[in-house]
Amino acid sequence: MSASTGFAAVPWRGREVRVEYVRIAPERTDAPLVVFLHEGLGSVAMWKDFPERLCEAGGFRGLVFSRPGYGQSTPREPDEFWDVDFMHRQAHEVLPAFFEAIGLTEKPWLFGHSDGGSISLLYAARFPDRVAGLVGLAPHIFVEDVTVANIELARKAYLETDLPTKLSRYHADVDSAFWGWNRIWLHPPFRDWNIEAELDAIRCPVLAMQGIDDEYGTLAQIRGIAERVPGTKLLEIPHCGHSPHRDQPEQAIVAAVSFIANPGESLYLSRK
Predict the structure, then answer these.
(1) I need a surface site. Which of 17, 38, 42, 115 has the fewest CB within 10 A?
(2) The dihedral of CA 124, 129, 132, 133: what is its sign?
(3) What's the first-to-final CA gap in the chain, in angstroms?
(4) What single DSSP character describes residue 267?
(5) Chain CA centroid to CA 113, Å
(6) CA separation for the pair 260, 257 (Å, rounded)
(7) Which of 34, 25, 31, 24 is nearest to 108 (CA)?
(8) Using an 8 Å Cβ cutoff, are 95 and 171 in contact?
(9) Count of Cβ atoms closer than 10 Å to residue 80 Cβ
(10) H/E/C letters for each residue in 123-145?
(11) PANTHER family given for it (predicted)?
(12) Which uninterrupted H or E stretch holds 165?
């Protein structure tokens, strides 16, 4: 299975930014394309080998990229503050511009984790005819107290421990990545952020999975998606925290591969 790396020039916020990306198995020209959207502190490198493992298991092609501000993509400007609409802007502005820059014209499957899952949902709602289907891992559709409390703990850890050093393995500018995510989630007006009503516009198949022990959100998040998007498949995973692809990777891979191959089957509903 081959992989190729590159950078795309994307116009955004009045300047051109570089977006790093990796194509997985591009030679599989007839296979479904899965686009991986990372978490709030993620990047291409943060996924490690999970995208390759999923694509190998399903015979898929993959596209993994780092959003502006993360990984090896262009960092935030020092005075650039992301507002309450930052995930909307990623879904409505950055993602379409990135797809155009790399010449993507087909309908991909979106595979998003955490903030990346929310961005996937927002993209599928705004552009319902451009998505084949969507797999969301621990996406957020509204803000919960448990989420804010643990993001506050992350801020404390960033200031008082070696967390910046650990994150620097995955980001060229670790302050850009951390503070872009942390400050907006702790910004008081962000407590009212809610995308539930926007989910009504989604028309593609959806699989939403979440760990039962998720420290950044309750199962009300994915159950709320099912209430809004008819036919949504749910997978609630025991012994799993906020990152199913790290905590229970085999279960996440099996569920995602089966869903993409047969999105109409209802094999994954699991509630405790």
Answers:
(1) 17
(2) positive
(3) 38
(4) -
(5) 4
(6) 5
(7) 34
(8) no
(9) 13
(10) HHHHCHHHCCEEEEECCCCECCH
(11) HYDROLASE, PUTATIVE (AFU_ORTHOLOGUE AFUA_2G14860)-RELATED, MONOACYLGLYCEROL LIPASE
(12) helix 163-167
Cβ atoms of 45 and 169 closer than 8 Å: yes
Note the helical H segments in 202-248: 220-228, 244-247
- The Cα 254–Cα 57 span in angstroms is 8
Which tens digits make up the pLDDT trace of 128-155? 999 999 999 999 999 999 999 999 999 9
Contact call for residues 221 and 210 (beta carbons, < 8 A): yes
Q: Please say whether the beta carbons of 269 and 262 come within 8 A.
A: no
The share of the chain scoring above pLDDT 90, in percent, equals 89
Length of the chain: 272
**243-249 CB contacts, 8 Å cutoff, 24+ apart:** 243/39, 243/113, 243/114, 243/137, 243/138, 243/211, 244/137, 244/138, 244/209, 244/210, 244/211, 245/47, 245/50, 245/113, 245/137, 246/50, 247/211, 248/211, 249/50, 249/53
* Angle, CA of 40, 42 and 103, to the nearest 5°: 100
* φ/ψ bin of 25: left (φ > 0), alpha (ψ from -120 to 50), beta (otherwise): left
Beta strands 61-65 and 15-24 are: antiparallel
Residue 155, CB-side half-sphere exposure with 13 Å CA sphere: 15
Half-sphere exposure of residue 198: CA atoms within 13 angstroms, side-chain side: 21
Instruction: Spell out the domains of the chain, with CATH numbers in brackets.
Output: 3-261 (3.40.50.1820)
Answering whether pTM is above 0.85, one says yes
Predicted confidence (pLDDT) per residue in 200-256, tens digit? 999 999 999 999 999 999 999 999 999 999 989 999 999 999 999 999 999 999 999
Residue 37 tokens read as 């959207």
